[in-house]
Amino acid sequence: MGYSILPDLATEILVPLAAVVGIAFSLLQWSLVSKVKLSPEKSSEEGSGKNGGPSDYLIEEEEGLNDHNVVVKCAEIQNAISEGATSFLFTEYKYVTIFMVIFAALIFVFLGSVEGFSTKSQPCTYNKDKYCKPALATAIFSTVSFLLGAVTSLISGFLGMKIATFANARTTLEARKGVGKAFITAFRSGAVMGFLLAANGLLVLYIAINLFKIYYGDDWEGLFEAITGYGLGGSSMALFGRVGGGIYTKAADVGADLVGKVERNIPEDDPRNPAVIADNVGDNVGDIAGMGSDLFGSYAESSCAALVVASISSFGINHDLTGMLYPLLISSMGIIVCLITTLFATDFFEIKDVKEIEPGLKKQLIISTVLMTIGIAIVSWIALPSSFTIFNFGVQKTVKNWELFFCVAIGLWAGLVIGFVTEYYTSNAYSPVQDVADSCRTGAATNVIFGLALGYKSVIIPIFAIAVSIFVSFSFAAMYGIAVAALGMLSTIATGLAIDAYGPISDNAGGIAEMAGMSHRIRERTDALDAAGNTTAAIGKGFAIGSAALVSLALFGAFVSRAAISTVDVLTPKVFIGLIVGAMLPYWFSAMTMKSVGSAALKMVEEVRRQFNTIPGLLEGTAKPDYATCVKISTDASIKEMIPPGALVMLTPLIVGIFFGVETLSGVLAGSLVSGVQIAISASNTGGAWDNAKKYIEAGASEHARTLGPKGSDPHKAAVIGDTIGDPLKDTSGPSLNILIKLMAVESLVFAPFFATHGGILFKYFYILIYMISSVKFLSCLTVVVVINIAVAR
């Protein structure tokens, strides 16, 4: 076996140090963004070239516009967006907190009742010769880790939203000096969120492990079983954030587009549109806060899945702390790699032209992947023994350190493949989106047909990439290999989040430019930033969905082991009924979220129409719309409509586990994983393609695009209809599905001890009933025979 090169003390220093470096770097980026002042005096000073040099002239000065009024308007709009987003999140968090408390109580009661709330030590699950801490301890610490994960997830989402609303107007103002300045501001703001989330997630998990270790001591099996609650807390909050935020943003977006663009023929983000503030608020609560919580949940769950398997492998058995914390060391290396990668975008190279934006973002993915591959090799060499054993469904499998390196690396590169395929199918620089745009010539129907076909086709390569990574990583290191492959895909989460958050910030910047009445040249720059942002957002969703598939499978393996299921046989009726029901769940969930967006959008459309029809001078620009009513419609609808989909996901494992047992639940998890991944990729890419097809026509950057435009033409209206159909697909149903498959798996793992002990009530009573019926039939027959014999004897 052997020992690792890196001593345990160095591991205990390096992990928190990397997290602190990540937090410090995010604060540095924030301070650089904050230098862009939202005050007319400072902006004018910068614009005159006193501080920024002759190249920093302002377009407003060139065109004779009033710089003072522009800056004041930008500040006012930013405040309105920030206040709306903060108000919504506080309202959402009130309801979510109630759920958090109730579910924490359920975890304690269910897990504590496994051994009748006993305080006595019990034989360990995987080694009956040893004694572990009582089930009551697992219940208490699982509850605490659940609350830790939930609170960290909420804070991640909230911080992301505050950063985005802080940066949107500043990006707009920087666009006056050039597309490069605006790009750096938007990207640095995204980096603040990315590094804060990655570092906080790592630091909180590390602190929780060390605090729990004070009680658990050498019982690492119990310690890391309790830690799984951290992933459950993170994903459960992410579900409500994604669904609630998605319903909010798409209700406003669809309402604003259908009435504003199609019916009234006014530009996107026009201040005359009553839903425009709600639309911009939605970008922050859905695409930023929801996405931040989502990727934090993925990180927490992949770490927990790897730690659970490692705790019952040689790392846990031999108390090898460095080997045990290998997943956290990978994440620590990821923060350092992403820090270096970010400097390439903000300091080493400068974006000088609109055409350089998308390649610049693509380089971030390539550079981070290449550097991270080297980083993984270093960590695997110094942190792992030359050989060790990994738990593999009841037996210990011998694994070499280079094999584990390949497991992490293949997950990392599979993520890059998924990212590039997503870019190909959603960027208007390539033929698939251009074909969708061209189909708008003949109306909305052909646009919808082409978009759906594109989405279905875009599933093929990502699924093969996921399949190959699963096969290779499982062959090398069983379920632990799959868990660290998922961690590899998420190892560059800081860069991924920076790229992902960049999109909504740029979108908001464009909206602020339009509402503030800024030059059309500035809007062209922000539109170019936004178009690249749509593609990067789709890439981010691809990463999230791909990693969710791997995480869910790793959690599934841990659940099967913890529930003592020997084999998952699909020919068994118990498993097969679970499989087919599980495959149905993503459709049911998608139907609920899509209908919720449709219902909320219907109310929004009616309200926007009412205001255009009843407020004199609104269309002419002489009267102000009632923004607050539209914000209230989106808020009320999202809070009300997020509960049923959330209940479906959270209650399904509990109901199936309690009433039908662990075998049926294993079928449900497998079915939802296989079905959910396909639908999620298809929905996200279809929506992204429709959105960029619309922007392709609006930009008119090529001869082909100009033949389809301009804005307001019939092909453009058809593209807008496709875009509105795709909005709930790419921003509500699609992204939420990856949370569904992860959350059900981690919830099943947390409750596995209870399900294994007390689950399957219906089947137990069913067999008892069958036995009773059989017994009654036997007794009846016996009675008849006795009576006949007596009669014959007489």
Automatic annotation (TrEMBL):
Transmembrane segments: 13-33, 95-114, 134-161, 182-209, 324-345, 365-384, 404-425, 459-487, 543-565, 571-589, 739-756, 768-792
GO molecular function, one term: diphosphate hydrolysis-driven proton transmembrane transporter activity
Pfam families (alphabetical): H_PPase
Keywords, in A-Z order: Ion transport, Magnesium, Membrane, Translocase, Transmembrane, Transmembrane helix, Transport
Compartments where located: Endomembrane system
GO terms for cellular component: endomembrane system; membrane
Main location group: membrane
Listed InterPro entries: PPase-energised_H-pump (IPR004131)
Alphabetical list of PANTHER family matching this protein: K(+)-INSENSITIVE PYROPHOSPHATE-ENERGIZED PROTON PUMP (PTHR31998)
Name used for this protein in its record: H(+)-exporting diphosphatase
Taxonomic path: Eukaryota, Viridiplantae, Streptophyta, Embryophyta, Tracheophyta
